[in-house]
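Journal club prep — side note

Before the paper discussion, L.F. wants everyone to see what a predicted structure for a comparable chain looks like in token form. Sequence:
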Amino acid sequence: MKEKMFREALNEAIREEMRRDATVIMLGEGIAERGGSYMVTKGLLEEFGAGRVMDTPIAEASFTGLGVGAAITGLRPVVEILFVDFTLLILDQIMNQAAKYRFMTGGRGRVPMVLRTQGGSGNGLAAQHSQSLEALFYHIPGLKVIAPSTPADAKGLLKSAIRDDDPVIFLEHKLLYQTKGPVPDDDDFTIKLGRGDIKRPGRDITIVAWSRMAQLALAAAETLSREGIDAEVVDPRTLVPLDKKLIFASAGKTGKCLIVQEAVRRGGVASDIASLIQENAFPLLKAPVRILAGRNTPIPYNITLEKSCVPQEEDIVKMARDMCNHGLQRQSAVRDSESTMQREVLNVT
């Protein structure tokens, strides 16, 4: 294991896959000569040349369409869109073409393409550069959706995504690029798509979170532990396919589940996960599943206002604490009610 930054782990994953497979190419704005806005593709042009690492014009629809076509004809493109907000310009190429090609060819066609993009708030980049849009892609059959929270997960999942024969949306949070963590020093290290991870075991409440929210959930769990609340943190890592069994098992074990997403609450992935838990693990729940999500508003430019619009560590602590304390209060109320009934019976007797 080696300590690496999130962006370094991504760079290593791409580099290893390009060395392993000559059909892997890269397309994007400023990814070659500049090494990418977040330095994820630094040094790739020098090693692999302009024929495999290509700077593109500021024309997302065009070069994404180029990537889809290249994938259909046998290459494995890794296409970078600078901000997830700009994926709105390529929805036809991704949702109508790439996502449906295998189905419309009766399974004979493949689109082995990875679309890398970064999203989320935190840098004061305002409403058009700070969105969390995973629900758009989560909704579309034919797409796989990945949202890692650690450098190790970023590397292992990106390598698996590049090797996958279906189009994959790989979402990277802008505030994670410089975070550090241990990464296996192994060219063959991969993480199977659809396999979540228990980042912290616990017994009192399950917190399901992905991308940067998983990191905040872990910090919140440490705070809760000092108050006597043992929180289990489950990171799905891939939203499609979703590790439902892991989530159901954890929610069933603790009996309480809080789902945290940075995206706005309305129509979000968290709502779907909550419905799946209540449909499949309801008998094991001790309380309703709750969701902590971003406000239903565009992200403000002002940093203070921005923070008020998306979940923070203290928000996770408060909601988890309320869920656990409510359970204790409810148990106490039941006990008090039972005691009252017993006294009434004795009085009657």
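L.F.'s comment for the group: Residues 331-338 have pLDDT under 50 and may be disordered. Keep this in mind when we get to the figures.
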